[in-house]
Known about the structure:
Low-confidence stretches: none
Number of helices: 13
Oligomer: single chain
Strand content: 5-15%
Shape: globular
Order of helices and strands: EEEHEHEHHHHHHHEEEEHHHH
Largest sheet: 5 strands, mixed
Distance between the termini: 70 Å
Structural class: alpha/beta
Amino acid sequence: MQTPTLVLNIGADVAKDEIVVACSEGSFPTRPLANQRTALRAFLKSLPEGSCIGMESTGIYHELFANLAHKLGFVVFVLNPKDARYYAKGVGLHGKTDRVDAEMLARMIAHEHTNLHIWIPPTPEQREIDRLIKRRAKLSSLRQALGMSLKGLDGFKTDLKTLRVRFDQVIAHIDQRVKTLIEASPDRKEHVMHLSTIYGVGQVVSAALVNTLERVPLKNADAFVAFTGLDPRPDDSGQHRGKRRLSKRGPSELRRLLYLAALLAIKTKTWRPLYEHYRGKGLSSTAVIVILARRIARAAWSMYTYKTEFDSGRLTKGLT
């Protein structure tokens, strides 16, 4: 009778040059690996099939390890650092070192893997669209900061105008590249055009939404809202009713874009009645805009999933 292969749960603390790996089952001692293809591939080849590997999202430094592990057939989890930090506090870890973090991630994967989303690698096109949209946001932020820093200073008006023009040219170049990537796929192009019919949602927001919905399968609109981090979290205990706060767990740029879309939406006759309805209930302007951002996210998920049209009549249906 063959002995079943032990499936391991691996935690990896990722840095630019080094990855510290740990095993919850203790099959090997916690140790560092060079964050290089040869070393990582050799380590992965030593693991039994079907093992689970968890790591925090670290910008780009985790991508090589995650992609290699996925290609070799392992179950990969790329975790929100905030979730990992709360888990560490929840299990009573007070110190923070690379070794402690790797062992904590291994423990988290071993105990919580059934409640975590398995990581699905983006296609090269999806990865490029995501990076372009993030770089666009950074450029827009720098453009605004530049204007604020030079505002009111004599003798810099021409320089500021020149710099703004250059920023606008680079942003336009990014927009054109995103458009090219969108149009390269007929399905993606159709979805982007479709979501652009939501009042307040432009090309950038619709591209970001489609790029996310393509690769993150979510079972319903509420799950998509939670993924974006726009879901309110209760803080209740006994008779105490605490202030609801956004979880802010998901991709921050998508959340920001949805908020900006809601800001534009309230200027339209389609969304304005909804804005005024909630304002009339005593909610702050910011709170209402967040509510509308959630509405936009739900509409986008439904339209993408079921290929339905945007129904503006549903927005105010039932409001009194």
